[in-house]
Structure formats: C-alpha cells, structure tokens
Amino acid sequence: MRTVKLHDATLIPQLGQGTWNMGESTARYDSEVEALRWGIDHGMTLIDTAEMYGDGAAEELVGDAIRPYNRNDLFLVSKVYPWNAGRKNIFRSCEDSLERMGTDHLDLYLLHWRGSVPLAETVECMEELKQQGKILRWGVSNFDTADMKELLHVRNGDQCQVNQVLYHLGSRGVEYDLLPFMNEHGIPMMAYCPLAQAGRLKQKLLSSRVLQEIAEAKGRTVMQILLAFTLLRDDVIPIPKASSVAHTSANREAAEIILTQEERDLLDREFPKPDRKVPLDME
Ligand SMILES: NC(=O)c1ccc[n+]([C@@H]2O[C@H](COP(=O)([O-])OP(=O)(O)OC[C@H]3O[C@@H](n4cnc5c(N)ncnc54)[C@H](OP(=O)(O)O)[C@@H]3O)[C@@H](O)[C@H]2O)c1
User: Fold this and answer.
1) Residue 217 falls within a domain, yes or no?
2) What is the DSSP string of 131-160?
C-alpha cells in the first residue's frame, strides 16, 4: 500500500475505508464488519467515521470490527459535529466517540464542517485534546480555500493535518485552487465520495463511453477506474465505503491500477477540471 505524508510527517495508507450508513442495519452488520476487517488485513488500516453516522452506530460498528487487531496497527479517524466543536461539548463528544469505538485515543479528529463556533476556540480545544492524549492530531472537513486561509491565521491553526472534502472524477473543483493551496502548505486531502456514491452523485460517470472503454481495456470496473483516478496524486487519500468483501477487495485492487498518460488525457477531456473557481461540492 502506498503511503501519504501528513503535515506532521506521519505516514498513513493512501487508501482508507469510509463508514457512512454502516452499522445501521442488523441484516448487513456481519457483512460490514467482515468488509472492514478484510480491508484492514489488506492494508486499508485507515478507517473514517463520525459521531454523526447513524448517531454513533457506525462508530460502534468500527469498535466491533477492530477488536481483534493491535490498536497501533490502525489509523482511526472520527469527526465532531460543528455544534459540538466548542469548549462546552467537544470533550464529551470525543469521550463518547472513544467509548463507542472501544479505544483510548483517535489518530485524527476532524471538525465535520464549519459552524458557528469560532475556529480559534475549536483549535484551542483540539490542542487540549492532544495534550490529554485523547487524540494524536486533528484536521478539518468541508473547508474551502478561504476557510483554510482563515484557519492558518488562527493560533496553532497550522497544526491542521488534513482537510476532508468531496472529490471524484465528476467533481474536480478542488483541483483549481484548494488542492494547490493545501499542497503548498503540506496538508494532504482526504477524498470523500471517491466513487461518487457508486455513480449516484453524477450519472454521467455511469454512462460515459470513455470510462467504460478504459475499464474494459484494463479488465476492471468503472468504479475501480474512478478510484484509481483519485489515487493518481500523492497528496490525496480516498476513503471509499464498502459493505461487502467483494466491494472492499475491488477497491483494494484499484490501488494497483496504473492509468497511462493516454488514459489520463482521455479522462481529462471527458471530465475536465474547471478553469475557474467553483464552490466546494458537498454532494
Ligand atoms: N466529511 C464529510 O462531510 C463526508 C461526507 C460524505 C462521506 N464521507 C466519508 O467518506 C466515505 C465515502 O463516501 P460515501 O460513502 O458517501 O460514498 P462512496 O464511497 O463514493 O460510495 C459508496 C457507495 O459505493 C458502493 N461501492 C463501494 N465499493 C464499490 C465497488 N467496488 N463497486 C461498486 N460499488 C461500490 C457502496 O456500496 P456498498 O455499501 O453496497 O458496498 C456504496 O453504495 C463515507 O463513508 C464517509 O466515511 C465524509
């Protein structure tokens, strides 16, 4: 598994696993646990969750899935709601997430999106959580370029390790200025919805002849090509969500796909990156 260097020089796997909508159905529970474990066994040791997902159900599922593993072999990420990201609630929120996941620390704690709590207060609390050993590092999510600039002006704002945003072949707005800005500051990007939620977020991905032909030529699926696209850069960490071993293993395989320059050019022509600023996509 290739690795990505965080702002603090920690190396993490380039391909992680998402958990949104997981842990909410008893019928799917065992399959979801099995899928996450298969991923961990094959190098996808980074698991992304949030207090929001199923009101804690996804964190509990993660807790079950990771029980057989050595905690030091995992990289656990969770997120705090914006309205809990201030002095009044963040310490309780973090403790609850830790309890649900059955661990004593998070590797990374993210502000899920920007709310009304001042950034300076959130950063101060995140730094306190670090001192308490409850989290090893923190980051943000759904921050556009202007938000990142503001964050870097806050005291200790430069301790931000990642920004998690929506990114897939059909939504390339971040390539215009957010990714270059983050790259300049040594902050990698976690890409959520790297499969555009199996194409649901952008129907053209499913109907594209170019994508189908590239997939066929390589003996892969369109979903695997989508994932391979998000793995092209060495500062992007996609976190696809899969509820079955079949999907997790297909995603793991995608990390081995090499897209030729010609294929990349074809994808660029079919799904061009914007040549002007567009606001951050959230779906
Ligand atoms: N920070 C934020 O605001 C934010 C927002 C959204 C998501 N996220 C995080 O990012 C993760 C990924 O995003 P997402 O779950 O919305 O979308 P996604 O990963 O783009 O797509 C998930 C969908 O793709 C399907 N799938 C997975 N692997 C597949 C494969 N190899 N072939 C065909 N279908 C496949 C899944 O089906 P099955 O489930 O049936 O396998 C599911 O329906 C989330 O789970 C969450 O952890 C963060």
Assistant:
1) no
2) HTTSBS-EEEES--HHHHHHHHHSTTGGG-
Q: Residue 40 is part of which domain span?
A: 3-195+234-242
Q: Mind listing the pLDDT tens digit for each residue in 162-198?
A: 999 999 999 999 999 999 999 999 999 999 999 999 9
Rounded to two decimals, the pTM is 0.98
Structurally, the chain folds into a number of domains equal to 1
In a domain, 228, yes or no: no
Q: Mark out the alpha helices in 171-232 (DSSP H runs).
A: 178-184, 203-207, 209-218, 222-230
Ligand 1 atom closest to Cα of residue 141:
1
CATH number where 101 lies:
3.20.20.100
Both structure tokens of 224: 């695997």
User: In the block, which residue shows the tokens 């705090």?
Assistant: 80
**Pocket of ligand 1 from Cβ distances under 6 Å:** 18-20, 48, 112, 141-142, 164, 192-198, 221, 223, 239-244, 247, 250-251
